[in-house]
Automatic annotation (TrEMBL):
This is Phosphate-specific transport system accessory protein PhoU. GO terms for biological process: intracellular phosphate ion homeostasis; negative regulation of phosphate metabolic process; phosphate ion transport. Belongs to the PhoU family. It comes from the Bacteria. Keywords: Cytoplasm, Phosphate transport, Transport.
Length: 233
């Protein structure tokens, strides 16, 4: 992931912290998969596994952030090296927040199961959005490992698909509630779950933006797709 520097020790430190980010990403991916499984199967044990992993994710984020602070203080990096370390810090924070969203899904699943309303929810309609979000995060981590700006641009475009799925799902839930007020409680639960899935896609998009920041030195947040494509030329 990193380029060679005059200091082999610095290279080693950068590679080491980058590897830990990938490890954190793997843990978070596992959380998402378990959370979606818990949702579709109404499996409380899968939900428990998600919540148990949350503590490890939080601890690893703190450790990586501490390590980054130490590297910056000792090495005083400049230019791209500094951008890389800043982007790693922001990526780590976004991965921790993805874990938070997976944890929200798991907690909601447990609450639904305990309420006895599980089988009333058409959860299979969330599968497409969940698969898209999990796939987007996987692509973002792969692109981050390779600092692939072309892949990052593709991720930014793909995030629109998740947003469209979410908007369509919200419209469908509103229709359900208008036609049958008895579905309001279940529909609100689904809305909470759908929003958590959409936020996972947003965090994957953030990671893609950090890749462009590292390579091009351009902050493309709140920038049109046309402007981003121009910056990458």
């Amino acid at each position: 992931m990193t380029e060679k520097h005059l200091s082999s020790q610095f290279d080693s430190e950068l590679n080491g912290v980058s590897s830990r980010v990938m490890e954190l990403g793997g843990m978070v991916e596992s959380q998402i998969n378990q959370a979606v499984y818990a949702l579709l199967q109404f499996d409380p044990e899968a939900a428990n596994r998600v919540m148990e992993t949350e503590h490890r994710v939080n601890a690893m984020e703190i450790d990586i952030d501490r390590e980054l602070s130490s590297i910056i203080a000792r090495r005083q990096p400049t230019a791209r090296d500094l951008r890389l370390l800043i982007a790693i810090s922001k990526t780590t924070a976004n991965l921790e927040r993805v874990g938070d969203e997976a944890n929200k899904i798991a907690r909601m699943v447990k609450s639904i199961i305990e309420s006895g309303a599980a089988r009333q929810l058409p959860t299979t309609e969330l599968r497409i959005a969940a698969d898209l979000a999990a796939g987007l995060l996987r692509k973002a981590l792969d692109a981050f490992a390779r600092l692939d700006t072309a892949a990052a641009l593709s991720i930014l475009k793909d995030d629109d698909l998740i947003d469209k799925e979410f908007d369509g799902f919200v419209r469908k839930l509103v229709t359900y509630m208008m036609e049958d007020p008895r579905t309001i409680s279940a529909s609100l639960d689904l809305l909470f779950l759908a929003k958590a899935i959409e936020r996972i896609g947003d965090h994957a998009k953030n990671i893609a933006e950090f890749i462009i920041y590292i390579v091009k030195g351009a902050d493309v947040r709140h920038t049109s797709m046309q402007e981003i494509e121009s910056a990458l030329q």
